[in-house]
UniProtKB/TrEMBL annotation:
<keyword id="KW-0560">Oxidoreductase</keyword>
<dbReference type="InterPro" id="IPR006140">
    <property type="entry name" value="D-isomer_DH_NAD-bd"/>
</dbReference>
<dbReference type="Pfam" id="PF00389">
    <property type="entry name" value="2-Hacid_dh"/>
</dbReference>
<feature type="binding site">
    <location>
        <begin position="310"/>
        <end position="313"/>
    </location>
    <ligand>
        <name>NAD(+)</name>
    </ligand>
</feature>
<keyword id="KW-0963">Cytoplasm</keyword>
<feature type="binding site">
    <location>
        <begin position="173"/>
        <end position="174"/>
    </location>
    <ligand>
        <name>NAD(+)</name>
    </ligand>
</feature>
<feature type="binding site">
    <location>
        <position position="118"/>
    </location>
    <ligand>
        <name>substrate</name>
    </ligand>
</feature>
<comment type="subunit">
    <text>Homodimer.</text>
</comment>
<keyword id="KW-0520">NAD</keyword>
<comment type="function">
    <text>Catalyzes the NAD(+)-dependent oxidation of formate to carbon dioxide. Formate oxidation is the final step in the methanol oxidation pathway in methylotrophic microorganisms. Has a role in the detoxification of exogenous formate in non-methylotrophic organisms.</text>
</comment>
<dbReference type="InterPro" id="IPR006139">
    <property type="entry name" value="D-isomer_2_OHA_DH_cat_dom"/>
</dbReference>
<dbReference type="GO" id="GO:0042183">
    <property type="term" value="P:formate catabolic process"/>
</dbReference>
<comment type="similarity">
    <text>Belongs to the D-isomer specific 2-hydroxyacid dehydrogenase family. FDH subfamily.</text>
</comment>
<feature type="site" description="Important for catalytic activity">
    <location>
        <position position="257"/>
    </location>
</feature>
<feature type="binding site">
    <location>
        <begin position="229"/>
        <end position="233"/>
    </location>
    <ligand>
        <name>NAD(+)</name>
    </ligand>
</feature>
<feature type="binding site">
    <location>
        <position position="255"/>
    </location>
    <ligand>
        <name>NAD(+)</name>
    </ligand>
</feature>
<dbReference type="InterPro" id="IPR029752">
    <property type="entry name" value="D-isomer_DH_CS1"/>
</dbReference>
Amino acid sequence: MVKVLAVLYRGGQAAQEEPRLLGTLENKLGIADWLKKEGHELIVTDDKEGASSEFQKHLPDTEILITTPFHPGYLTADLIEKAKKLKLCVTAGVGSDHIDLNAANTKKITVAEVSGSNVVSVAEHVVMSILLLVRNFVPAHEQILADQWDVAQVARNAFDLEDKVVGTVGCGRIGYRVLQRLQGFDPKELLWFDYTDLPPNAEKAIKARRVKDLEEMLGQCDVVTINCPLHEKTRGLFNDELISKMKPGSWLVNTARGAICDRAAVKRALESGHLRGYAGDVWDVQPAPKDHPWRHAFNPLGGGNGMVPHYSGTTLDAQKRYANGAKDIIRRYLAGEEQEPANLIVVDGDYASKAYGQREKKASGHKGPGP
Ligand code: NAD
């Protein structure tokens, strides 16, 4: 019998009424009956903070841990030390930065995610976020809710996306799909920055220009979208200094990870007008505290905030894909089968993915960026 522990967000009434909310505490990724039939134990909880949480209580004798980026069970090096039986961490979704990957390597714990499962979901959200910032949508909608009508007040900060320069930091599965989807808006130019090459055909197909220096790219962009993982080199990357290299009055969209952007620096840049807008769904701790500065950060005209809870990658379509993918990873583990190489982040004490930072040892298995 294998003990499986899953940390999932509470769905409440919504999860009872909508069974396709598979990634919730209530609907248990749709794997509860299957694991029970196979004779395994499944514990599901949303209680994840502090030493007396269900998460920490069950961790020491857990063999398979399932977490999601939406309600992350933060698996620190200290907790990994206590998780003596832990063999496999499954991220139901994409992005395993809530796990201390270096510590997982030390203990030879495998970390796998359901690569590709929600990349279209996020790319669509990025395009939506770019549009809602550039077109000043949120303040316009708020007028309607407040029974107001003042065209000039919203039009004074509304623009077209056409003829703008848009750049992505990270051109992997999501970044590439964002560029693909932006073609139809006739931008002036699409730019990308990544240390990993695109396959030549993929690079040709998106008609985007690679810029090898991040600051050089940022200085040219009207819109910047962040699509790289959170790792040692990207934590706090968008601080006061880097944001100052962005074009004055530009827009920043971050659906990658909250901690890639310095929370105080973003608020300062918005309030000064250096950033005209900031949008995304990821926060540096989740759930975001009530007093998180990004909840109430605005540009000098009172707009420019396109923040939402972390849901871009957990649409019902995405949940189906990552629930199925998580089940397949667990099934392979239990059957002693090889994992899909693209799903492996760390394995056998080393990084299998090239996406979590440039490392001296060449990562194998996981494909590079692009489609
Ligand atoms: P991917 O592995 O396909 O691509 C990531 C790319 O980022 C790689 O090409 C890598 O080389 C590049 N990269 C890494 N460090 C970089 C750096 N310092 N500068 C520039 N590029 C860098 O991953 P993906 O599927 O495109 O997902 C990217 C990230 O998006 C995930 O790691 C996750 O954090 C986030 N994500 C968020 C949601 C959501 O719901 N908001 C859902 C899925 C993924």
